[in-house]
């Protein structure tokens, strides 16, 4: 498993789980909030004050000069959908101070037509030891999900959704400096997806929004069903957000990778999600923790572009500035003024593709043919995965492919195009990850051939007899490419070869593989070819992977290339002498579908790597 620095894991976890002490800095100075006599807030989260004093340290008092007020960011919601409040705390004094990271605790809700209002506690996580600094006349604003509560007449009663039925509501928060109540309208779901997803949206899943953490195993299946089976539902974005939060809280590379996948889908599919700014901030932290500095840089730039006044920008740049310094992936693109070789494009069968998707398909390939890398990137979805990796890597790969060429030809023949609600992308070569998309999709399959006429060295060609392109519609009427699988028609062989390649650095000496007739030991054969049997200190042998390519007439046979370093025993040569050779393992798929060894090529290195 890849090593991830613990500090970055903690940063990424905090990105999703809420504002820790070091990130809760005040926003730029703004207008002071209206002065109002300070109100003492209830002490605790549902227990009596006496109980709370016995069980937990006393919460710091709110300074009298701090005023706060709230406004509704999502005035129209579905039943049980969170209402997002923008709560702003302001320092009305002339000196700096700190105040506890509190949200309002007590409120009343009056539904139109009801005689009496309901009095409820807000369910939320109290940061008893977290103090927010505020300078003179400074303000600090944070988005708060308003979703669960309980009647204060009971001791620790069950949680309930605050706005569970359609209707017009007025909400009054105790201590709010604004005199008018907040207006929220709850509308009945209109689409079948909203109805079905709403049935899966439970109090237990919503608890993760307020810091309470039920068993993830009981929550995650419902979340996955919401965003996979009902991806256009209003609840889908919340399901992705909570799933990402759960994965980040668990820690570890695999869970962080899953959190990144959920976060990517959230910001790509739901750009109007009220917590999108926080989601982008969280993604920066998760990417940095995983060592994906290219994606972290790109996401930070996206955050700055979409939310130029975001309070997260300065802190993220300060925290990750060193980790994100240095040349990025885009440095591999041609500098301005470079002559880019064009390709002639020939297509057939495109009439099989539905009209809107066909326009996106043709526009994308025309940009590829012309070498318009900006247009190519614009046609790719944010969560695009291709044979060479993510969107960041696609345009540089195109440039490397056509460098030193005079001209080229791209030939595409479409054999099928069909709409789908789910697409599971297989792992492909050389670095395309397996991934699943849910939503309005169009899967286009066919064959691809790319030929480049080189200025020196003749012609190079890449042929993929079973290529696949998948387009996703978001927003409605806009189609973008989310997946490309084109490098090899034999994904099974590629996947098995990738698994072998990953194990070779640690297990070369113990690796056993059949050639279709008998089991062989490649490491022992390498030593025998070199006449070194019995002459090597095996525990010091080192293997370094170089490349994995698909060879053969149809590009179906994997070739794993690497370098082996073997230390001679003192009795076999000068002390410390190392034998270095380049080795190619040529593989093929056997009758049972498993890889077999065709041959081993051992060569003297032409250059040290």
Can you walk through the features of this model?
The chain is α+β, with helices and mostly antiparallel strands and 609 residues long. Helix content is 29%, strand content 31%. The strands form 6 sheets. A 7-stranded mixed sheet has the order 2-12-11-5-6-9-10, with no helix packed on it. It starts with 5 loop residues before the first helix and ends in a 6-residue tail after the last strand. Residues 1-11 and 17-54 have low confidence and may be disordered.
Spans where pLDDT lies below 50 across 5 or more residues: 1-11, 17-54
User: Could you give a short account of the major beta sheet?
Assistant: 7 strands, mixed
Return the average pLDDT rounded to an integer. Answer: 83
What global shape is seen?
elongated
Secondary-structure class? alpha+beta
Oligomer: single chain
Number of strands: 25
Spatial gap, N to C terminus: 24 Å
- Output the strand order for the largest sheet: 2-12-11-5-6-9-10
Figure out the total of helices: 15
**Strand share of the residues?**
25-35%
Give the C-alpha Rg: 30 Å
Fraction of helical residues: 25-40%
Question: Brief description of this entry?
Answer:
With 609 residues, the chain is an alpha+beta fold. It is built from 15 helices and 25 strands.
